[in-house]
Design brief:
Elements (H helix, E strand, L loop, with lengths): L18 H7 L16 E2 L5 E2 L41 E2 L9 E2 L5 E5 L5 H11 L11 H5 L16 E8 L7 E8 L9 E8 L9 H15 L5 E7 L9 E4 L4 H8 L9 H18 L4 E8 L10 H7 L9 E8 L4 E2 H9 L5 E4 L2 H7 L2 H7 L2 E12 L4 E6 L20 E4 L3 E10 L7 E12 L6 E11 L9 H17 L12 H22 L3 H20 L8
Parallel strand pairs: 3-13, 8-9, 8-11, 11-12, 12-14
Antiparallel strand pairs: 1-6, 2-20, 4-16, 5-15, 6-7, 7-18, 9-10, 15-17, 15-19, 16-18, 19-20
Helix pairs in contact: 1-12, 2-13, 4-5, 4-9, 4-10, 7-8, 11-12, 12-13
Length: about 575
């Protein structure tokens, strides 16, 4: 989708925001002491148990229609205007996954989805905004924005289970709604398993743009240096075909031929991702058979613009298929570039290749992502094929909708199955999920158990399927301002991403409620202003305010005039 031309002429007057500091005084008690249990929190943990295969559940019923629009009054606080946004970069490919509507709990009370720790959608949008581009609504996947931030969950009780935390508060946008959070924290497991890494490097002509080659080369070299003598690494370069003279089969990371191959990454001709991954899978499979005790990672570094042979991610994955599910090849995709970039290909390759997807916008980020400390955590899986199922109590919850996760929602009966497209969660990873809820009248006053969440996954070291359950509960009469600062941050981030993504109509030529979206974003910007002093001055929080201002300005440009003077 391309945003309307009016979006490209954004120029909103700068207004004072000191009023936000005064409003902070009346925002209510912020119960965010990490070491002290809050009276309005509801936390639950449970030890995992081996899960036996059960009969498949009935498929999900057709979701109920979305709730009637009831936008809250537009807030009065103004925000700093960003500079005029440029047209969206050319030749970029995203996929509009739509938005999940509210579902009548009496008709369908079960929500099933793959867990997710990707955060590329957020960093891609931030890079676009910082480069002066308008953020493409189709690029926004709300769960990836939510999971881009740290929420300081407590550690699990042991190395084989999650810490599960649940909270429920009144909705920051009102309208009689509530918002619930489910936070899952994986333990940090010891780095005691060797790894085989296969680098698949894009050497096509499109990598010539900007600093793409420099970023990919830095990420590859940092990966090599972060490995130990017990690990092995191979290198594949591809353009219109594989560059055979630069292929290095698995060797010790300090082997000179590996370093030389990485340093010779240069742009050449067209992009044959299929050829590169086919050879990468062959080399990785050979290393797996030679070293069956090792974990195996294939790292594709590319702008994703496949234009030779297969260009569909599922055709590419079928061509480079991994037939050994007992010790899978985990496909990591690393995206570089702005213009001429295919987000859809890279995201789907990782999701259905049992791996994860990251975006790098400079060499410093490449060094940070693949530093030894980070890489040891990312390359040590805690859970394979991880998924969650939330079952709401229809007596307590009238209607529900999940924020984001649209392309990770699965039929309810698949929860019983181990499937490749369910996510891998690395050691120490946290996953956060938010739901918008309409509660029954009786459930709105005091403590309530609204449902339960069950998590299942495959333990990588043993292949055993494990499971864990907890209640989704909280003080439903607690205002949003009473939530801890991390809950409020995550809710604002998720709701802002969700609302902005609605600027793309789900049905072609359908009318978009740009005025309602703008009102919601402006209200969320107000809420963020009340929260900022609780968050500190970390760069992540400064970056998000900048991005939220850009989104709000974009929606304002699309919103029809109210007819009143400014």
């Amino acid at each position: 989708m391309r945003l309307p031309p009016r979006l490209l002429r954004i120029l909103i007057p700068i207004a004072a925001i000191a009023v936000l500091g005064l409003a902070l005084v009346g925002c209510g008690h912020d119960d965010d002491d990490d070491e002290a249990p809050a009276p309005r929190r509801a936390a639950a943990t449970a030890a995992p148990t081996a899960v036996a295969t059960q009969a498949s559940a009935a498929p999900r019923a057709t979701p109920a229609p979305a709730r009637p629009v009831g936008a809250p009054p537009a807030p009065t606080a103004a925000f700093a205007a960003p500079r005029e946004q440029q047209p969206a970069p050319g030749d970029t490919t995203f996929r509009n996954y739509g938005r999940t509507p509210f579902v009548d709990a009496a008709t369908d009370a079960v929500s099933t989805f793959s867990l997710d720790t990707d955060r590329t959608s957020y960093f891609l949008a931030l890079n676009w905004a910082q480069s002066g581009y308008a953020v493409e609504p189709d690029s926004v996947r709300a769960e990836e924005w939510i999971n881009a931030f740290a929420y300081n969950y407590g550690a699990p009780p042991d190395e084989r289970s999650f810490a599960i935390r649940t909270d429920v508060f009144e909705h920051p946008l009102g309208d009689g709604r509530h918002i619930a959070r489910i936070g899952l924290q994986a333990p940090r497991v010891p780095d005691n398993t060797p790894i085989n890494v296969t680098l698949v490097l894009d050497a096509s002509g499109s990598m010539r743009e900007g600093n793409r080659v420099a970023i990919a080369r830095e990420a590859a070299e940092t990966t090599r240096r972060s490995l130990s003598s017990r690990d092995r690494i191979a290198v594949v370069h591809f353009t219109s075909d594989v560059i055979g003279s630069l292929t290095v089969e698995h060797r010790r990371p300090d082997d000179d031929s590996v370093a030389r191959s990485i340093q010779q990454l240069e742009p050449h001709q067209s992009t044959n991702v299929q050829a590169g991954l086919n050879l990468g899978v062959q080399l990785a499979d050979a290393a797996r058979r030679e070293r069956p005790e090792a974990f195996n990672y294939i790292i594709l570094m590319s702008d994703g613009v496949a234009n030779v042979d297969a260009t569909n991610p599922f055709v590419i994955l079928e061509s480079a298929r991994d037939y050994d599910s007992s010790n899978p090849l985990r496909l990591i995709t690393i995206g570089v570039g702005i213009e001429n970039y295919n987000d859809y290909l890279l995201e789907q390759l990782a999701q259905h290749g049992n791996g994860w997807y990251r975006y790098l916008d400079d060499t410093a980020q490449a060094r940070s992502t693949f530093s030894r400390e980070n890489w040891l955590a990312l390359s040590t899986p805690f859970a394979d094929q991880a998924r969650a199922q939330v079952t709401w109590d229809p007596r307590q919850v009238q209607a529900w909708r999940i924020i984001g996760y649209e392309n990770r929602v699965t039929p309810d009966h698949t929860f019983e199955q181990n499937r490749r497209e369910f996510a891998e969660l690395p050691s120490g990873a946290a996953t956060t999920v938010f739901y918008e809820l309409f509660l029954s009248h009786e459930a709105r006053f005091g403590s309530a158990v609204l449902g339960d969440v069950e998590v299942r996954w495959v333990e990588p070291s043993s292949g055993v399927t494990l499971g864990q359950q907890a209640s989704v509960a909280g003080r439903t009469d607690a205002p949003f301002a009473a939530a801890d600062r991390y809950f409020r941050l995550g809710a604002i981030v998720g709701l802002a991403a969700d609302r902005y993504s609605a600027l793309t109509p789900q049905v072609e030529n359908a009318e978009v409620d740009a005025r309602g979206i703008h009102a919601d974003l402006l209200a969320l910007l107000d809420e963020y202003g009340l929260l900022e002093q609780r968050l500190g001055s970390a760069q992540a929080y400064v970056d998000f305010r900048f991005l939220l201002e850009r989104l709000t300005a974009a929606a304002a440009e699309l919103a029809p005039s109210s007819g009143y003077s400014d």
